[in-house]
């Protein structure tokens, strides 16, 4: 499979018109024979890409004390319980934060308050925080999430996810796609039979089919 993925990626990169900005590379995944009105059939997976995302990933951490101090080294923003309460009173600011942030991480003991203050904003966006247990290293967790993408179909048969950037090269992008396909096939009820097609493209380039 790896060779055919690389062929599709190479075609997508070669056929992409020259742009004056760094394009991302995405895949579109088409599902079939699944009742996506049933939430248990929907795809909702976090996947760590072996070659990284090729893009900046915005991560916000809710933490206090020593964990907050350590999170400052790696997170884009660190918020405490007072900040959380302020966000709960400012719906527009909470929505802006949710839209601008790729992933949230929170100390486990703050999760109940996050549900109370921000659940109605983060929940529908699929952005409830990853709980940080007392033994978890916040630096390791954030660094891992910087290389993570979310596969989320909701109730749609076609959904998209980032797999890299054009200057990463076909090998690295292909490795990322391979990991995503393997995860999908492992989690779908009928494995590859539930995949109707996968297409890879740069931001502005033509889509190329990835054989599965």
Automatic annotation (TrEMBL):
<comment type="similarity">
    <text>Belongs to the universal ribosomal protein uL1 family.</text>
</comment>
<keyword id="KW-0820">tRNA-binding</keyword>
<dbReference type="GO" id="GO:0000049">
    <property type="term" value="F:tRNA binding"/>
</dbReference>
<keyword id="KW-0689">Ribosomal protein</keyword>
<keyword id="KW-0810">Translation regulation</keyword>
<comment type="subunit">
    <text>Part of the 50S ribosomal subunit.</text>
</comment>
<dbReference type="GO" id="GO:0015934">
    <property type="term" value="C:large ribosomal subunit"/>
</dbReference>
<dbReference type="InterPro" id="IPR002143">
    <property type="entry name" value="Ribosomal_uL1"/>
</dbReference>
<keyword id="KW-0678">Repressor</keyword>
<comment type="function">
    <text>Probably involved in E site tRNA release. Binds directly to 23S rRNA.</text>
</comment>
<dbReference type="InterPro" id="IPR028364">
    <property type="entry name" value="Ribosomal_uL1/biogenesis"/>
</dbReference>
<dbReference type="InterPro" id="IPR023673">
    <property type="entry name" value="Ribosomal_uL1_CS"/>
</dbReference>
<dbReference type="GO" id="GO:0019843">
    <property type="term" value="F:rRNA binding"/>
</dbReference>
<keyword id="KW-0694">RNA-binding</keyword>
<dbReference type="GO" id="GO:0006417">
    <property type="term" value="P:regulation of translation"/>
</dbReference>
<keyword id="KW-0699">rRNA-binding</keyword>
<dbReference type="InterPro" id="IPR023669">
    <property type="entry name" value="Ribosomal_uL1_arc"/>
</dbReference>
<keyword id="KW-0687">Ribonucleoprotein</keyword>
<dbReference type="InterPro" id="IPR016095">
    <property type="entry name" value="Ribosomal_uL1_3-a/b-sand"/>
</dbReference>
<comment type="function">
    <text>Binds directly to 23S rRNA. Probably involved in E site tRNA release.</text>
</comment>
<dbReference type="GO" id="GO:0003735">
    <property type="term" value="F:structural constituent of ribosome"/>
</dbReference>
<protein>
    <recommendedName>
        <fullName>Large ribosomal subunit protein uL1</fullName>
    </recommendedName>
</protein>
<dbReference type="Pfam" id="PF00687">
    <property type="entry name" value="Ribosomal_L1"/>
</dbReference>
<dbReference type="GO" id="GO:0006412">
    <property type="term" value="P:translation"/>
</dbReference>
<dbReference type="InterPro" id="IPR023674">
    <property type="entry name" value="Ribosomal_uL1-like"/>
</dbReference>
């Amino acid at each position: 499979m790896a060779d055919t993925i690389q062929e599709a990626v190479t075609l997508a990169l070669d056929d992409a018109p020259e742009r004056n900005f760094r394009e991302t590379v995405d895949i579109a995944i088409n599902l079939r024979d699944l009742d996506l009105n049933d939430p248990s059939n929907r795809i909702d997976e976090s996947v760590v890409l072996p070659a990284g995302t090729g893009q900046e990933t915005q991560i916000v951490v809710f933490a206090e004390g020593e964990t907050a101090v350590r999170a400052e080294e790696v997170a884009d923003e660190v918020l405490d319980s007072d900040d959380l309460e302020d966000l709960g009173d400012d719906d527009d600011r909470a929505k802006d934060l949710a839209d601008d942030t790729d992933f949230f991480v929170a100390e486990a003991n703050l999760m109940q308050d996050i549900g109370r203050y921000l659940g109605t904003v983060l929940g529908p966006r699929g952005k409830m925080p990853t709980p940080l247990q007392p033994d978890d290293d916040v630096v390791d967790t954030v660094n891992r999430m910087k290389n993570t993408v979310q596969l989320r179909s909701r109730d749609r048969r076609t959904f998209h996810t980032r797999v890299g950037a054009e200057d990463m090269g076909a090998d690295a992008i292909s490795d990322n796609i391979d990991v995503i396909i393997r995860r999908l096939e492992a989690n779908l009820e009928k494995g590859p039979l539930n995949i109707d097609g996968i297409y890879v493209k740069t931001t502005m380039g033509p889509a190329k089919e990835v054989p599965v």
